[in-house]
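Regression check, FE2/S2 (inorganic) cluster case 101:
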Amino acid sequence: MSTLTLMPAGLTLEVAAGASLLQAILDAGGKLVNPCGGGAKCGGCHVFVTAGRKGLTRVTPAENAKLDTLVGIGSKSRLACQAQFTGTEDVTVELLGALSG
Ligand code: FES
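Current build output:
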């Protein structure tokens, strides 16, 4: 199990290894749009992982390709729909802009 913390709201949730980061964010009460349904096609689930990157699976080629098309990405960017918990570290995620409250 890992603890997911959503910032800036400070919401937390205990998450099992193998669980989707996108689903965990939604379960924790985070607001995140996912119009493509988790296919790494829309970029709506872009978040910053500010701590515990090793607590998530590695970036896939499809995720990397989509991230390259988005504005405002950085070294901490992930598509939540493409990341699963590994159970090895707690994870802190920063939700972006209007979706952060
Ligand atoms: S939900 Fe569309 S890219 Fe993640």
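Comparison notes: The chain has one domain: 2-99. The pocket of FE2/S2 (inorganic) cluster is lined by residues 34, 36, 38-45, 79, 81 (CB under 6 Å). No diff flagged against the previous build.
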